[in-house]
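Review form for a predicted model. The reviewer records the input and the model, then writes brief findings.
Reviewer: anonymous (R2)
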Amino acid sequence: MITVALLTFNRPHYLRFAIESILNQTYKDFDFWIIDNGSNSETLEVIKSYNDERICLIRIDKNTRESANIPFTGETREYFMLMHDDDTLELNFLEEMLDKVIRGNYDALGCQLNILNDIKENNCSNKNKIKNIENFGKNPILEFLNNQQPPCPTVIFRKSFIQKNSICFNLDAGPAADINLWLDIVRKGGLIGVADARLYNYRLHNEQDSFINSVIMECKLFLFWLNNNQLNSNDINLLNGRLFQYYFNAKLRLQLNLAKEINNVFKKLNSDKFCSTYHIKFMFWFLFNIDSISEIFRRIKCVLGFRFKSKEAKISNSA
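Model under review:
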């Protein structure tokens, strides 16, 4: 019924938890592909310590992002998913998710997340729920900006739809290729949903979700959409709001190089070819040049203040 693909690279200390959460599923009819991106011998030892006929080890010579597309183009079963090697599944994940994806006739269905805190105790804390749990795709750009897209490693895909439409991760979209994937599915008529249940345990690391990485990732994605003619004027205005928010956060954090990069992306998004709403362009020009404008007002204030003080001095001297 389903192929579970797990992508791994040099994480033997987490990998064992991931493997066991898959092998111990209440639903048993699945193939298990472990896609190893050229890991060290310790990782291989962990994989080979499991003697289960459902496991298929796929070895790649080097760590490459292209490996993520193996289940999208390969001979999987009717459904497939691609999960991370440092995450775990709730033991009823496959049973519940397959029931939901079949009954709802989804082409891609994800679920809510728990956040893994500590490998030793395997504690989980809840993550805020995705509000739009019925159907994704009415306005995919807006849903992305509101963080309403399904978490990628939780998603079960329907093979027939994915391969019929030649859908996979477009790596030119950068680290946010998963977000572009949802846009591709929706625009090709696919049905995406997010189940209400928390069935996937997602591990956060210190280096994840940093402000700088998130901004750079999204800026690359915005330019990819722009260069591939995937944005209309309404989309541009929505992305402008996001860039505006990031720009001022970068300024507050004194991350001036990042602010400059955001400004460059804004200028490309708002060329005359794509945006003819001049009052919006003027507003964002004002916001992105507020430092220069503030300096002008500061100097005017200094001049006026100097003149006011000079006038006071003349009045006091004449008195």
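Findings: The chain has a mean pLDDT of 82.
Further findings: The first helix runs from residue 12 to 23.
Recommendation: see findings above.
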